[in-house]
Design a protein that fits this description.
The protein is built from one helix and three strands. The protein has about 80 residues and is an alpha+beta fold. A three-stranded antiparallel β-sheet has the order 1-2-3, with no helix packed on it.
Length: about 80
């Protein structure tokens, strides 16, 4: 997989992710950014939550378990 971050202005970057996906990352205004997208730290937390949720779903499907609704919460302190 290839991911490329290209600076827009200030801390804002366009991030291209292989597979034809593009997201914008930035820092909050309080951290000197313009808040045009989530910060990299927030994306890491989102990736962790998504990874855990999808892994649970895949494992349950393999085991033929009905696990109902899935919700994963990640709390990050920084």
């Amino acid at each position: 997989m290839r991911v490329v971050a290209r600076r827009r202005e200030g801390y804002a970057h366009d991030v291209e992710i292989e597979g034809d996906h593009t997201i914008v990352i930035d820092e909050p205004i309080a951290a000197g950014g313009t808040d045009t997208g989530p910060s990299p730290t927030r994306l890491v937390a989102a990736g962790l939550a998504g990874c855990v949720a999808v892994t649970m779903e895949m494992y349950a499907k393999r085991k033929e378990w009905d696990i109902g609704a899935v919700e994963v919460e990640v709390d990050v302190e920084y």
